[in-house]
Design brief:
Helices cover 24% and strands 35% of the residues. The protein is of the alpha+beta class and 119 residues long. The longest helix has 18 residues. The radius of gyration is 14 Å and the shape is globular.
Length: 119
């Protein structure tokens, strides 16, 4: 699977917990494609690591944080549900910046790299 909008930076702490940070800024016309990409990735994570979402330091394999804002810095409400997908309402005609952070065990990071051809 390829990612067109999310460009991840990876870091790792001393305990081996990986952090994948991505930030994408798009025009309102490209927002549906970005939303679809984030949904695809989060659905993959929920399916590939079903029942294993939670803080890595508490035994989970992965967790995530989403945030979004308008180009003027105004935050937008955003959320993800496995059934209904990503919920994000943005006014028309404005650039939107969406951030996704994944915290991950080594197993999750390896699977993410393999599934999305990440280096």
């Amino acid at each position: 699977m390829a990612l067109d909008y999310l460009d991840f930076d990876y870091s790792e702490d001393d305990e081996g917990t990986g952090t994948w940070d991505a930030l994408a800024s798009v025009t309102a016309q490209r927002l549906p494609a970005l939303v679809a990409e984030v949904e695809q990735l989060l659905r993959w994570a929920h399916q590939a690591f079903a029942g294993r979402r939670g803080p890595v330091e508490e035994g989970g394999d992965w967790d995530y944080n989403l945030h979004a804002q308008l180009e003027n810095g105004q935050p937008l409400a955003i959320g993800f549900d496995e059934r209904s997908g990503l919920q994000l309402t943005a006014p028309a005609g404005q650039r939107i910046t969406l951030g996704l952070t994944l915290s991950a065990s080594a197993a999750f990071s390896d699977a993410l790299r393999a599934s999305y051809a990440l280096d």
